[in-house]
């Protein structure tokens, strides 16, 4: 029998009108939200199996991280302050080549802990050993859109093995874990995959009716290399290959022209804005206000904690709101309400699940987080959305709920052994030859 739960709090719905219900309540039965509105007059007589009185705290949709590599948490802090290509080719790829299923397991657990603790309920992951990642996501109770990343800088035989692995993974795991796990097909990037290989992946995505995910236009070097190799910038290159005829989520999209933004808007391509990673690697600043103005759905991603160096989406949220004000000399370039939508509603669009995720509305999934607003930095309580974007931090999250199940309650993790995960992550890192 499904348990019915009602939480009494200030409800930040992120619905069509960005409604905030100050003395409100959210109820859910099983994995679905069943009530959003004023708090029943008598909580003790409300007829729910459990009533949780958190008056004054903020309840909002779980945050959605639309680009990352969970297993790479093992490389956090290993190689900082380097240009992207040097960072990748000299530091990341040599160590990642040694990763095993066990390595990825503990790196993923470390990432899941961090995301649960900081309010992320859904994430996109592009990596290897994805069957291991899927099992960890299932056990932890998280929601994820998973991709077997495919780098094409290898022999044809290896490329076909990767495509076969990605296909088998998709067939085995898409819509599993009670629907919490879904899959995308993922060529790594235009500069690491030949046109022929990308075309093969697109054809397989079409056959399996799956969306596509790819790194695109992250650095000026990448764009220039694409023009040198193929005579086209990445956006036109991928358009020519037919990628955008399928639902597509691109990560980064830093170096874009106005014409390229028009192409992304034309095909309803979704963009994951990885503001911290792009700044740390000096990749540049994506033209987010222009994309939003032209109707491109822009969500937030952390990228890996090797290039971030954490998975605290609240940092992305604040930076997305303030960075674009500064670089555009425009204090309303990305208002707080729009930034919060990037972390929630537009994130749901980024994972192609906007009908079920991204806002607190009846019928949607009960993916919720509660912030402890009984702290000085939330007061005076002028504007809850402003406080969430500009004042809050991931450490303020006290409860994390996915599909109606508490993964963290009163700051206590319920589905992962944090102490063991930290120990094992350090242990497996020591096995790598550096």
TrEMBL record:
InterPro entries on file: Amidohydro-rel, Deaminase_MtaD/DadD, Metal-dep_hydrolase_composite, Metal_Hydrolase, MTA/SAH_deaminase
Cofactor note: Binds 1 zinc ion per subunit.
Cofactor: Zn(2+)
UniProt enzyme class: hydrolase
UniProt-listed Enzyme Commission number(s): 3.5.4.28, 3.5.4.31
Catalytic activity: S-adenosyl-L-homocysteine + H2O + H(+) = S-inosyl-L-homocysteine + NH4(+); S-methyl-5'-thioadenosine + H2O + H(+) = S-methyl-5'-thioinosine + NH4(+)
Residues in Amidohydrolase-related domain copies: 58-406
Binding residue positions for Zn(2+): 67, 69, 215, 303
CDD domains, per database record: ATZ_TRZ_like (cd01298)
Binding site for substrate: 96, 148, 159, 188, 218, 303
Gene Ontology molecular function terms on file: 5'-methylthioadenosine deaminase activity; metal ion binding; S-adenosylhomocysteine deaminase activity
Gene3D superfamilies named in the record: Metal-dependent hydrolases, Urease, subunit C, domain 1
Lineage: superkingdom: Bacteria
Keywords associated with the record: Hydrolase, Metal-binding, Zinc
SUPFAM superfamilies assigned to the protein according to its UniProt record, in alphabetical order: Composite domain of metallo-dependent hydrolases (SSF51338), Metallo-dependent hydrolases (SSF51556)
PANTHER family per record: AMIDOHYDROLASE-RELATED DOMAIN-CONTAINING PROTEIN, AMINOHYDROLASE SSNA-RELATED
Biological function: Catalyzes the deamination of 5-methylthioadenosine and S-adenosyl-L-homocysteine into 5-methylthioinosine and S-inosyl-L-homocysteine, respectively. Is also able to deaminate adenosine.
Family classification: Belongs to the metallo-dependent hydrolases superfamily. MTA/SAH deaminase family.
Protein's UniProt name: 5-methylthioadenosine/S-adenosylhomocysteine deaminase
């Amino acid at each position: 029998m499904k348990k019915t739960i009602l939480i009494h709090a200030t409800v930040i719905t992120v619905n069509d009108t960005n409604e905030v219900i100050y003395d409100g309540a959210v109820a859910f039965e099983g994995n679905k939200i069943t009530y959003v509105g004023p708090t029943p007059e008598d909580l003790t007589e409300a007829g729910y199996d459990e009533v949780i009185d958190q008056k004054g705290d903020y309840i909002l949709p779980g945050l959605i991280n639309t680009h990352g590599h969970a297993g790479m948490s093992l490389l956090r802090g290993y190689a900082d302050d380097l240009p992207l290509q040097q960072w990748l080719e000299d530091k990341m790829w040599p160590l990642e080549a040694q990763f095993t299923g066990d390595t990825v397991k503990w790196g993923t657990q470390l990432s899941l802990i961090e995301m649960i603790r900081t309010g992320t309920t859904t994430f996109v992951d592009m990596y290897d050993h994805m069957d291991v990642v899927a099992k960890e996501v299932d056990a932890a109770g998280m929601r994820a859109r998973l991709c077997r990343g495919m780098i094409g800088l290898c022999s044809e035989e290896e490329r076909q093995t990767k495509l076969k692995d990605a296909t088998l993974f998709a067939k085995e795991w898409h819509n599993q874990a009670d629907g919490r796990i879904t899959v995308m097909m993922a060529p790594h990037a235009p500069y690491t995959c030949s046109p022929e290989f990308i075309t093969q992946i697109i054809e397989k995505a079409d056959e399996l009716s799956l969306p596509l995910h790819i790194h695109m236009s992250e650095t000026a070097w990448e764009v220039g290399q694409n023009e040198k190799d193929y005579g086209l910038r990445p956006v036109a290159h991928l358009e020519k290959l037919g990628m955008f005829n399928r639902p597509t989520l691109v990560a980064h999209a830093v170096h874009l022209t106005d014409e390229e933004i028009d192409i992304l808007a034309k095909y309803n391509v979704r963009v994951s804005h990885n503001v911290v990673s792009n700044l740390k690697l000096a990749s540049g600043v994506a033209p987010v206000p222009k994309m939003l103005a032209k109707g491109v759905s822009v969500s937030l991603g952390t990228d890996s904690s090797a290039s971030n160096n954490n998975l605290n989406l609240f940092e992305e949220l604040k930076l997305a709101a303030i960075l674009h004000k500064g670089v555009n000399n425009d204090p309303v370039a990305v208002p707080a309400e729009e930034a919060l939508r990037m972390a929630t509603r537009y994130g749901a669009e980024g994972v192609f699940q906007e009908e079920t995720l991204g806002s607190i509305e009846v019928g949607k999934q009960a993916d919720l987080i509660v912030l402890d607003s009984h702290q000085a930095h939330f007061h005076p309580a002028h504007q809850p959305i402003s406080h969430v974007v500009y004042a809050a931090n991931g450490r303020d999250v006290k409860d994390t709920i996915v599909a109606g199940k508490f993964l963290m309650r009163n700051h206590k993790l319920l589905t992962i052994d944090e102490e063991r995960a930290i120990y094992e992550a350090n242990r497996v890192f020591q096995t790598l030859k550096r």
